[in-house]
Amino acid sequence: MTRTERHRYDVVVIGAGGAGLRAAIEARLAGKRTAIISKSLFGKAHTVMAEGGAAAAMGNVNSRDNWMVHFRDTMRGGKFLNNFRMAELHAKEAPERIWELETYGALFDRTKDGRISQRNFGGHEYPRLAHVGDRTGLEMIRTLQQKIVSLQQEDHREFGDYDARLRVFAETTITELMLDGDRIAGAFGYYRESGELVLFEAPAVVLATGGVGKSYKVTSNSWEYTGDGHALALRAGANLINMEFLQFHPTGMVWPPSVKGILVTESVRGDGGVLKNSDGKRFMFGYVPDVFRKQYAETEEEADRWYDDPDNNRRPPELLPRDEVARAINTEVKEGRGTPAGGVYLDVSTRMPAETIRRRLPSMYHQFKELADVDITAQPMEVGPTCHYVMGGVEVDPDTAAALGGVRGLFAAGEVSGGMHGSNRLGGNSLSDLLVFGKRAGEHAAAYCDTAGRPRVSAGDLAAAVSTALGPLERAGGDNPYHLQQELQAIMGDLVGIIRRESELSEALKRLHELRARVAGVSATGGRRYNPGWHLALDLRNMLVVSECTARAALERTESRGGHTREDFPAMDPAWRRVNLVCALDGDGVRLTRKALPRMRPELLRLFDRTEMSKYLTDEELAEFDALPE
Ligand code: FAD
Asked: Is 169 helix (H, G, I), strand (E, B) or coil?
């Protein structure tokens, strides 16, 4: 039998981004022995790449802001497909979580009177994003790590061991969740450097593994976003929801080809940047949909006045939610008004003094100077849509973050969870989501341990996990994992991209189905010591099943909403607003079922006016709306 190192914990947190670190802190504060496992280096998670900021209705820059306005914006951004309770908890708790970060040592940018500064972002009615220049994620991760170190120092004082109650296992990939009946019993994986195998026995697991962007070639996501947590949850018996909704961020770099997809933060537009086509026209004025017409300016003059006088003018259409801006750019390029490299222009150089640009957008200044030899204080950037964020994820109970679907002891927070953002996430709402639901997941995972007993990992299940993990190294003659990944990315990019059609989605499903046997038989050459080919071979089965969920749900949803655009069903259909598509595993395949969305409580519904709701609700729902008590 191959040697497997064993560890015992109360709570195992898989993922060391914002959600995972915040969950681990909470579990440790509840006194639980907690492990943090991270596929990447400690400190290198997507959270560290977040630029613009964290959305929280603190009202520091505009005192009219409050949790109700934030809730409304989030629901509008998600086109009312959000789990309302998650959006409510998020809007209410985000300010406290941001303040708490400062007690851990974070230092956000300040207003003139010394409060945490907040910036404008797409879809947010008021300036709401707490930020540190355009490096907010770095400060968030730095601070959470600092808190972890301080907790480890406390443990050292008490137990003489830094790792007594909180230990980090970096560069360690989990490939399987272990079950004892319908209960979580632990997690199994390997150390990336040595290739040695490792089993963590624990009654509670928090998934905080982030997203799925590496199923697409043009993406702002890095190598570790292969949908592992999504797939681990499916294999353990949990459900995924909203998998048809992928956010294509409107502004990724398009040139040079080697950096295509790298993010250009929305702060560029929040701070005054404008989008222009090759005719020099600010084209977004032509793309304001009816549902948003009341809130967005109709002329350049009004849009420009808004930056100095937001109370008496409407917002520039460049700040529409991301799905709207991405589709508009896609149309401009398709209709021949794009730039030579196939994007559109994003210009700050004519909008702000060079010094202000360098101060407010330092990362963007360096990114374009170093990667594209473009000086954004003097020239426009070239940008186009890039796969950025998955709204879909593990179906969870909103209050406890516990996974639904029948497996006990599994929790999920952050990008790997679904429901919070509905069909489209507003920028800045992820970083605050990580803190709000990371904390809740840690707290409830810890509480669950008190009643869970000690589930056992069976020898048979462990042997099966070992065999699956070593399979690619022991097989010869299978496909090369890099070729398979390229094929998968081509299928998803060409057939399940930003604009979708029935024929292409059916073709995608057929080709993904054909890939199944080849992914199951993939081979990797070399040994177990730091072998990226082997690692990718194991990631591929996760990418494949998650891609199938996306393609199947995209085919089923015959409407366009948020991050799901069907050319053959271009309108939003109120009947679909009430439906979540739920993916579960059925043998080797994916089973899709429909589930009614939870109904919003009357006092929350009352936050919206009837004219607005009439654009989203069915006639039956509108009648119920009219009958609501005052
Ligand atoms: P991550 O931070 O990605 O962490 C995932 C962790 O899981 C990593 O440690 C990874 O190694 C680990 N992991 C994955 N699989 C495994 C496995 N099998 N075994 C062990 N470990 C595993 N959002 C905002 O709100 N505001 C912004 O300004 C913003 N800017 C962004 C800029 C960029 C360039 C990108 C890419 C995203 C941005 N986002 C922003 C989105 C936001 O950063 C992410 O949604 C968020 O950070 C996800 O956090 P997370 O904790 O869920 O996952």
From this structure: strand
**Within 6 Å (CB) of ligand 1, which residues are found?**
14-20, 37-40, 45-47, 49-54, 136-137, 173-174, 208-210, 220-221, 224, 228, 263, 389, 414-416, 427-431, 434
| CA dist., res. 205 & res. 32, Å (int) | 12
Q: Do 597 and 577 form a contact (C-beta atoms < 8 A)?
A: yes
- The distance of Cα 379 from the centroid of its chain, to the nearest Å, equals 31
CA distance 481 to 521: 10
User: What number of H helices and E strands is found in the chain?
Assistant: 20, 20
Question: For residue 600, how far is its CA from the centre of ligand 1 (angstroms)?
Answer: 29
Residues 6+ away with beta carbon under 8 Å from 499: 327, 330, 565, 567
pLDDT in tens, 434-493: 999 999 999 999 999 999 999 999 999 999 999 999 999 999 999 999 999 999 999 999
Asked if pLDDT for residue 3 goes beyond 70, the answer is: yes
Q: Which atom of ligand 1 is nearest to the CA of 44?
A: 9
What H or E segment, with its residue span, contains residue 312? none
Enumerate residues 6+ apart whose C-beta is below 8 A from 170: 16, 38, 40, 41, 42
Question: With 0-12 CB in 10 A as exposed, 13-18 as middle and 19+ as buried, what is 392?
Answer: buried
Give the residue, out of 21, 431, 543, with the most ligand 1 atoms within 8 A of its beta carbon, to mutate for a pocket test.
431
Residue 454 half-sphere exposure, CB side, CA atoms within 13 Å?
5
**Catalytic residue list contains 249:** yes
- Strands ordered across the beta sheet of 4-8: 4-8, 197-201, 183-191, 172-180
Distance (Å, rounded) from C-alpha 171 to C-alpha 580? 35
Q: Quote the ligand 1 centre to 586 CA distance (angstroms).
A: 29
DSSP output for 26-70 = HHHHTT--EEEE-SS-TT-SHHHH--S-EE----SS-TT--HHHH
Using CA atoms, how far apart are residues 558 and 126, in angstroms rounded to an integer?
34
Is residue 120 a contact partner of residue 272, using CB atoms and an 8 Å limit? no
Structure tokens at 538: 């194991």
> Residues 35-63, buried b or exposed e (16+ Cβ, 10 A)?
bbbbbbebbbbbbbbbbbbbbbbbbbbbe
Q: Choose among 1, 4, 22: nearest CA to 13.
A: 22
Question: What token pair was written down for 246?
Answer: 């992928």
Nearest residue (by CA) to ligand 1, atom 37, is: 50
Determine the atom of ligand 1 nearest the C-alpha atom of 232.
18
Which ipTM score applies to this complex?
0.99
CA of 249 to the centre of ligand 1 (A): 15
CA distance 506 to 555: 7
The count of C-alpha atoms lying within 13 angstroms of the C-alpha of 429, restricted to the half-sphere facing its C-beta, is 34
- How far, CA to CA in Å, does 509 sit from each of 16, 295, 503, 570? 33, 39, 10, 21
The alpha-helical segments, DSSP class H, found in 345-458 are 354-360, 362-372, 429-452
Q: How far is the CA of 45 from the centre of ligand 1 (A)?
A: 5
Render pLDDT for 376-420 as a digit per residue (tens, 0 to 9): 999 999 999 999 999 999 999 999 999 999 899 999 999 999 999
Distances in whole angstroms, Cα of residue 588 to Cα of each of 90, 365, 548: 36, 47, 11
Q: Single out the residue of 535, 539, 521 nearest to residue 213, CA to CA.
A: 539
Residue 64 CA, ligand 1 centroid: distance in Å: 31
